[in-house]
Each structure stands twice: as C-alpha cells, then as structure tokens.
Amino acid sequence: MKHGPLLLRGLALLLLVSFVIAPQRFAPLFAPLTQYGAPPIYDQGNLLTLTLAHLGTVCLAAAASTLIAVALAILVTRQSGRAFLPLSRTLVNIGQTFPPVAVLAITVPLVGFGEIPTLIALFAYGLLPIFENTLVGLQTLPPAVTEAADGMGLSARERLFSVELPLAMPLILEGIRLSLVINVGTATIGSTVAAKGLGEVIIAGLLSNNTAFILQGGLVTALMAVLLYEGMLAVERRLCRSVRTD
Amino acid sequence: MSALAAPLTAAPRRIEPLGALLTLAGALALTWLPFVLVKANRIVPGTPLGVGAALPPAVAGGLIVLLVGAAAVGLCVGAPRVRLLAALTALAGLALAVGLAGSLLTPGGNRVVRVAPGGAFWVVLVCLGLLATDALTRLRPRPLVRVLALGLLLGIVVAALASGWFDHLSILREYAVNAARFAQELRRHVLLAFGSLLAAALVGLPLGILCHRVPRLRPGVLGTLNVIQTIPAIALFGILMAPLGALAGGFPALQRLGVSGIGAAPAVVALFLYSLLPIVANTASGLARVSRAAVDAARGMGMTHWQVLRGIELRLALPVIITGVRVVLVQNIGMVTVAALIGGGGLGTFVFQGIGQTAIDLVLLGAIPTVALAFSSAVLLDALAETLERR
C-alpha cells in the first residue's frame, strides 16, 4: 500500500526533471496539438531556466513571507503585542478576499515591471496562510504544557523557543505548504508583467494559439505544485515525529 | 529584575499601542508623501502636492484638525465606540477633502488633466480604516449587524460617488470614459463567478453526499479534485480552449448557444472545475460531523433515507457547506479577473488593459470593485454560516 504513492511520486519527479532537461524528446507527444507546423515544444527560451526562475521566485517569496508572518504571529501573541491581536485576525480574513491579480496589478505601477511586483504580490499573498496557522498554533497550546514550562522556571525566550514554537511547528509547516502551492500557480500570472517564469510559456501559447505550449507550461507548473505539496508533507511528517519523541 | 518589572507592568497603560503605530505612519506619510498628484494626462507621472498646496487654507486646516482629533482618540481613548466614531468622521473628512482637491485643481472644462489621490491619501485612508476595523472587531457585532453595516457602507459609497463630488478624481474620470463597458463587464464578472458556483453546487452537493455514503470513493474523488486545483488558472483556461473550440466547430448548435474556444465558455468550465473541491470536501466533512445518534433516532422514528438526508443530515451540515460556498465564491471572483486574458471579459479586462498601458487608474477601476465584490460576498456568507451555526 505505502509503496504505490511513493512510486507515483518518484515517477512524477522523473517526468518533471526529464521534461525540463530534454523537452525535445517529448516533441512527438505534443506535435498533434499544434497547427500549421507550429513548434510543438516551447522554443523562445530554455525550459529549465524558466522552471528554475519560477521555483526561485516562489521560494524566495515564501521564505520572506515565512520570516515576517511567524515574527508577526509571535509578536501579537506576546503580552506586549496583545493590543494588535483582534485587528490582525480580522486583517487575515479581509486579506484573503484580495485576488492575487489585484495585488499584482496594484504593485506594478508602484515598482515597475519585472520580478519585483511578482515577488511582492507572492510575498503578500503568502503571508496570510502562514500567519493564520502560526497564530492558531501558538494560541492553542495545551494549558498543562505552558504551566509546566512556567513551573520549570523557563524565561519567556526559553519558553518560546523550546516549548511554544516546537509545538506549533506542524501548523506552521502546514501554512508554509499551503502558501507554496498557491504561489506556484499564482506566479504564472506574474508573466503578464514580464517576470521570468513558466507563465511565459503559457502566455506564448495563448498569444500564438498553440495548445502545446499552454499544456507544457500548465503541466510543468502543476507537477511542481504537486511535488512541492508532497515534499512538504513528507518533511512535516518527519519533523512532527521528532517533536513527539523529544 | 522581576521585582522591578512587576510594578511597571502593573501600571495602567496610557497610550494605546495600535493608535501610536497608526499615528506615526499617518504623520510620516503626510510629511513625506504627496496628498494628490496632478498629471498633465493619464499616463505621465504627476506633480506631487501636499495637503497645504492642494487645498484652500481653511479646508486644509480643518482636515488636519480632524486627523489630529482621530489620532488623539486613537492614542488615548480605549472605548471602541468612540474610536469607531472618530475614525469614521475623519474618513468622511478625508474623502470630502480629496474630492474637493480634485475639483479645485482641474481647470474648468479640461478633460485631459488628471488629479490622482497620492501616497499620503492612501496611507491615511488605510490607517483610519485599520482604526475603524479594530474598533469594529472589538465591538463583536452580531451577524445581522455586520450585514446591515456593510449595506450602509456600500450605500454611502454609491451615493457619494453618484453625487458628483468626486467626479474630477482620476479613477472616476476613467470610469466616465468607460461607463457603458464598466456596467457590462461588472455584470459579466458577477455572472461568471455566480454561474460557475451554481453549476459546481449542483454537481458538488450530490458528489459530496456520495463521498460520505461510499467512503471508498472519497480518497479518489478528493485526490483528483486536489490535482485540478494545482493547475494554474491561466493554463487551465488555455487547455480548455482547444476542446471547447473543437466542440463548437463540430456542433453548430453549441456555437449558437455561445460556446466557443475563446471567451466565457472555457472560463466557466475552468471555474466550475476549481469550485468542485471546496464544495465536495465541505459537504462530505459537514455530513461526517452529524452525529450517528441523531441519524439513528430519525431512522427509528420511521423517517425514510431521503427524509433523514434532507431534514437532519443536510440541515446540520449546512454551516460547513456554506463555508465551502464562501471559499468558492471568493476564489471565483478573484479568478474571473484572469479570464480576461482569454477574452472571457469581466473586470479583469480593465486590470490587464491598465497594466498594458501602465495606467494605474484603469487598473484600480478593475481591481477595487473586484475586491469590494469578494469582500461583500465573504461578509454575507460568513454571517449566514454563523447564523445557521447558532440555531
């Protein structure tokens, strides 16, 4: 039972890697989708470079969102930051109603075209799930544990780093996973504002009416999202096991 | 150390930290950023003007007094009602002032000059909005009150825009040029978002019930729907263009119904596919939440399967299902924006046109109503779910 999904994941990874390294080998598969002798494989740029740029943008944005979101969640759950707690919860709710395109479109006129508006939009959009999950994780600690920590005479800092954060870690990681997966898809829209990424392939397909391009861009992005999801899930399982045995 | 710290923390807090932060941000913005930008046309960068330069001295002074008053309340008064009132008064003053600046700075009869709200206006707007939001959150309004407040707010905004006071601001200039198209794209946006939601509900509810009744199906169905969610929106739109185009080519009857490779059809199908997951998953987990005892009792009373499902299970699962519908609706309203790329129409048309022409006013003309639409839907459905949950 357990080997089936693992095998499937391995195959998906193999497919993704071999496709972005040697896309021309897959040309016969995509050829039936093109018309009037259009190229079956994206030829206006290197697929590998685009994939890495896409992944780089997503990971950079996710790293920044993680740092800021976790710091903010810690801040509003401390005694000194309590005043910001109700507002920050409402803001998370409101923020999730902002469509990513709107965030992207509003940043473009402020900072210009290219990677930067995409990074900002992904960063802002990625904050919400991580912040929300960290907040829940820090606020739903079992009272017995926090009392024990106080009873042991831990300082506030020790309590945060060796009790609260490790216990909240599964939820924090889940938030990071959600935000990564959403951002892999959202980053494709970044190509409408000239950011490098797989959206370029899809948009080239839309512009030249070439379904093969659209399918390639979409498949590589979707495979990447699925693999990131599964990879993060594996990391979560491993880390959470170690938390429990500690 | 701890002996020293105790009396300090026990001392009453005089300054509200949120008020301090917002006051600082607002004051910095008013000092360093322009209140309005006067542009010779819609695309060139504008001349920045501060509050003093943009408004007659009496009005500028009045605005500053209002803002200082709101800051003072934000800093020193803890009562949420007072804070809400101060924030809303200052917001109204700010809006009236920027509208007046627009009228005064536009030369009479000139249709080319644009007066756009500047950085200071937006920052102060956000600060006052945050102050009001915080106060409102602390008041914990009941669902009905929240819906009424939303309706009142929307009513005031629409009335204010219709009054003509703001007509000289750049975004409304953009609206005036595109008024007919705006109404059409807005209708289209709502139609696409709600239409695909309705279709997804019609298919997703039975599918969710099926997943609950036949647990073996659940991992397969939810797994497939999960994978669909990972396909980026623009790719799914694009991928659907080819089969729909072929379908319309093969069946002229479908073409007459409006099905074609570009336009609304691929958008509706894609949104429908994205919408299925939250609805199916929430229906299944909502039904799983219904206690076995309640179902058994109903069966024991001689109710049929169908009666139990309709009268007990679905009724108890409804709040969870509504939460799924909220997720779908907010997600759809955002994603319809992307449909503009494949000729699907909707408010995204203005957003992408605006990006193409680097005309921020056009971007905002598309983006602000989209956000307002998503936000209003979220408030309405949240209130509905909460009301059902309480019953």
Question: What is the string of helix and strand elements of chain A?
Answer: HHHHHHHHHH
Pattern of helices and strands of chain B = HHEEHHHEHHHHHHHHHHH
- The CATH topology label of chain A is MetI-like fold
Q: Main sheet of chain B, how many strands, which sense, barrel?
A: 3 strands, antiparallel
* Quaternary assembly: heterodimer
Shape annotation of chain B: flat
Number of helices, counting only DSSP H or I runs of 4 residues or more of chain A? 10
Q: Using the coordinates shown, work out and report the CATH topology of the largest domain in chain B.
A: MetI-like fold
Radius of gyration of chain A: 21 Å
Specify the biggest β-sheet of chain A: none
Relative strand content of chain B? under 5%
Q: State the end-to-end CA separation of chain B.
A: 52 Å
**Class computed from helices, strands and strand pairing of chain B:** mainly alpha
Describe this structure in words.
The complex is a heterodimer of chains A (246) and B (391). Chain A is elongated and about 75 Å long. Helices cover 76% and strands 0% of the residues of chain A. The longest helix of chain A has 35 residues, at 211-245. Chain A has 246 residues and is mainly α. Chain A starts with a helix and ends with a helix. Chain A has a single domain (47-245), classed as MetI-like fold. In chain A, helix 3 packs antiparallel against helix 8 (156-186) and helix 5 (100-111) packs across helix 6 (115-139). Chain B is mostly helical and 391 residues long. Chain B folds into two domains: 13-176; 179-247 and 257-390, MetI-like (MetI-like fold), CATH 1.10.3720.10. Chain B contains 16 helices and three strands. Chain B has helices spanning 2-10, 17-32, 51-54, 57-76, 80-105, 119-139, 143-162, 170-213, 217-230, 233-250, 252-256, 264-289, 292-300, 305-339, 348-356, 360-390, and strands at residues 36-39, 47-49, 114-117. In chain B, a hairpin with a 7-residue loop joins strand 1 (36-39) and strand 2. In chain B, helix 7 (143-162) packs antiparallel against helix 16, helix 13 (292-300) packs across helix 14 (305-339) and helix 15 packs antiparallel against helix 16. The interface between A and B is large, with 49 and 47 residues.
